[in-house]
Amino acid sequence: MAKIRRMVLDIMKPHEPSVIEYSSKLADLDCIDGVNSSMVEIDHEVENIKATLEGDDIDYETVEDVIERLGGSVHSVDKVLCGKAIVKELTTPQD
Questions:
Q1: What is the pTM of this model?
Q2: DSSP character for 17?
Q3: In order of start, what are the domains of the chain with their CATH numbers?
Q4: 42-80 per-residue burial string, b: 16 or more CB within 10 A, e: under 16
Q5: Mean of the pLDDT values across residues 20-41?
Q6: N or C, where is the chain less crowded by C-beta within 10 Å?
């Protein structure tokens, strides 16, 4: 199976812990080199964040376990990049 190099996750989480703590805990994983998280939506019960994870061989199960231990869940896996290199995406005028 090809190594996962980048993932974009839609995460549903409670208000606490903060997006900062989520990002930090994910970045602490051995399989993660960096995390970029942004708040997408906040309502009275949960927050929705978009997290981009990058590493040489991301272990999805480990990532999901950390998210669940922090009280959240993976709402969707929006993007996965696998293989020896990260393929650059072409942009179109509407992007």
A1: 0.87
A2: S
A3: 4-82 (3.30.70.1340)
A4: eeeebbebbbebbbeebeeeebbeebeebebebbeeeee
A5: 96
A6: N
